[in-house]
Amino acid sequence: MTKYTLLIYGDPAEWEAMTGEQRAAHDAGHAEFRAAAGDRIIGGQELEPAPTATTLRGTTTSDGPFLETKEALGGFYLLEAADLDEVLALAKLLPEVRAGHSGVEIRPVVDHG
Amino acid sequence: MTSVADALAQAHRRDWAQVLATTAQVTRDLDLAEECTQDAYAQAMETWRRDGVPSRPGAWLTRVARNRALDLLRREAAWRRRLPLLVASDPSPGDDRLRLVFTCCHPALSREHQVALTARLVCGLSTAEVARAFLVSEPTMAARLTRAKKKIATARIPYRVPPPEALAERLEPVLEVVHLLFTTGHTAPTGPALTRADLTASAIELARTLHLLMPRSAPVTALLALLLVIDARAAARVGADGRLLLLSDQDRTLWNHDRITEGVSLLTESLRRHPPSRFAVEAAIAAVHAEAPSWEQTDWSEIIGLYAVLLRLTGNSPVVTLNRAVAIGFRDGPAAGLAALQPLTGEPALATYPYLAAARADFLRRLGRVAEAVTAYEEALALTANETERAFLTARLQGLEE
């Protein structure tokens, strides 16, 4: 088994602007993903918006996310799966894959074992 | 009697992928499988010279490569800790070679990685040969192959044929890569020869394998049809003196008419039940040329109509627009052709594409607009790196300047 992170990127303004109905559909998408992934999910969190981030670079502490891009990291899942195809099939359930402004990056986690 | 070298070359082209794919089932590691496959071919040269060519060279090579892999694995005490690269697949329908092709063309790999891996692992070209065919230096190609194999290993791209519901989506990059291998060989991007027959032969072998394994897939059938009909003209494309011969000047008796017949019948089969894929329309265009008794009797209206269909399927591809303009020029005269090229001026996708300048040059020459034609030929020459094509353009340019 390999561990993967699913990093969810998108435009925070678009996420903010979701109506109650859109939010409900969005949450239902995540519920469907979690149900399908089952105990392959090891962890995951939604993150507070990018302006709440604090960045450390050398000795400098600064306000904001590490990368100043329009599309920010909004949350992540940590998943354990047999191979990439298994992860791809699950990740397709995430609503962020279909919204125009967002997407999901899948990265294997380094195995130090 | 074929020599050992010929038998080996044939076994290389025909069996490399099968030997590698079967060995990979044992090693679960593409790098190691590649090493063992290479060893088997090296050993074949020696053993076959001494004992003669075995009756089934592919089976011989597979046995030797597998045994070599098992030896190495046994010797390697820590092999169980080796990152298992190739996720063992359920016994799925299909063939080891097919598994290898789908692994190399996984959509999680970039197109350039897909092409490099397929050429190296499935077609069995050396890193130097792949580098030469795709115009990069050997170290660059070696690094590209290493990165791609590393991604397969660390991201765990599985070694299997995708399930039926994912097949259509996953087949597309495979067909694109096979097509790209063929076109790269059909007009080599650089070098003295017009073609790289090893690449076109490998691409046809691959398309044949796909068709054997997926006989009911319409786009697979169409791709094989396309490659066969285009390749049927190979012997006529260059004159005895090495000069490039345009379709209009080719000796049609040199065309391989068996291949044309086979290709056309495959095309008919592919069109019988399915809406035409891009490859089917391209094959249909090639078939109209192949079945015309002479250049003068080419059905240009049919070809222009097919290009219109292809434009829709490719989202108005500039290259298709260019080809359609050339066909219009042949049916309605050079002025009409030149007008049809007009929308392509300044098209960024064609900025380094020599055939736009070459087509303009030809229309201008036929219209007697000599000065403009000279400029256009010079532009085409500046963009062409294939020596045979350069010689052709230079001859046309000299003809104008006399």
UniProtKB/TrEMBL annotation, chain A:
Pinpoint the YCII-related domain residues: 3-109
Query: Which superkingdom does the taxonomy of this entry point to?
Result: Bacteria
InterPro entries referenced in this protein's UniProt entry, alphabetically: Dimeric_a/b-barrel, YCII
Family under the similarity heading? Belongs to the YciI family.
* Protein name from the UniProt record: YCII-related domain-containing protein
Q: Which organism is it from?
A: Paractinoplanes abujensis
TrEMBL record, chain B:
Q: Does the keyword Transcription apply?
A: yes
| Spans through the membrane | none
Task: Give UniProt keywords alphabetically.
Answer: Sigma factor, Transcription, Transcription regulation
Task: Report the domain of life of the source organism.
Answer: Bacteria
Q: Which residues form the RNA polymerase sigma factor 70 region 4 type domain?
A: 102-152
Family in the record: Belongs to the sigma-70 factor family. ECF subfamily.
Q: What is this protein called?
A: RNA polymerase sigma-70 factor (ECF subfamily)
**Taxonomic source organism:** Paractinoplanes abujensis
